[in-house]
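Today's session is about reading a structure prediction critically. Students often jump straight to the picture, but the first step is always the sequence itself: look for stretches that repeat, for charged clusters, for runs of hydrophobic residues. Only then move on to the predicted structure, which in these notes is written as discrete structure tokens rather than atom positions. Here is the chain we will use throughout the hour.
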Amino acid sequence: MDDILLLEAIERYLSGDMTETEKDYFEKLRRDTPEVDQMVVEHLMLQHQLEAYATRRNIRHQLLETHAQLLQTGEINEGGPVSKKAQIIQLFHRYKKVTAIAASVGGIIALFISGLALYFSSSVTDPKLEQLGRDLEAVKQKQKVQGSIINEVKTKIPQNARFLSGGSGFLVESNGLLVTNAHILRGTGAVVVNNKGEEFKASIVYIDHERDLALLQIKDEEFSALKFLPYTVKKSNANLGEEVFTLGYPRNEIVYGMGYLSAKSGFNGDTMSYQVQISAHPGNSGGPVFNRNGDIIGVLSTRQAQVEGITFVVKSANILRLVAALKVADSTYQDLKLPTKSALNGLNRESQIQKLEDCVFYVKAYGK
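Below is the predicted structure for this chain, in token form.
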């Protein structure tokens, strides 16, 4: 497709001017052609920057108009003599009006400064990564909106500890060994919750901060080991454009998301990660990312700030390295074997999810 025609198509796609048939064709082109997808993302970012610039110009124009009006009415004086009458007559009534105007101008200036700060912070520095763990305040706010309270009575978090952060995790061994992100485990311990709302005590057995991965072991009499895990951990790299899906806990219930692999490297060319086009939110961190056959290709970790849908996934090869390191560090895990056979290949998505739900957990990290 000619570059000019492609840019015109991107403009029509982002403005919503395409017909449904054109839109379906273009979205397929995005999925199959990473270069086109990247152009769409960059064009969207450019649009946002232009809109921000237009907003700043409008605010500046409003400030100048307000300033001129204040000079004309005599509410402000630029260097001229100030009469005693202006200082003392009807102070209360005069200040009511001036205060209202000052408040309006102050609000406009505050917005203007905030806009400038946002503009310069985003244009001078590279886009930052956002970790996708759920922090305590976000959880409190969400549960307040839902009309519920954080469960402090039935929880297995110790009484002298408090909930610090949350995310997702998944089993790599049927007896309760889970993988999650290291950045989720802010405190000294964790509990995990299954898709039925049952909470289990867990201990942190290994952390690899360099790869942002960690292993948790469920140690709870109420936990019943699964008969087997229905998926495998993929040893080779995933393919560009490959359809992927994830399960995780951005809410207090398990949530499904679908997307595709848009780059074989992560943020700034990080070779330990993939770039995936998928919607992700705080709480998705640590969640498994599957290919269409149900093989785990990685662990969802971060997303690109201010750009919708660009997320980064720690490659599955790093899970294998993590488990190998655990075997060396702790002799009790020397006989640990990851699942080698998939029961998901050939199943439709609904059937795959039904078999996977019991394997994905909500991770709650706690500390003092």
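Discussion point for the tutorial: The chain has three domains: 3-32, 43-124, 128-368.
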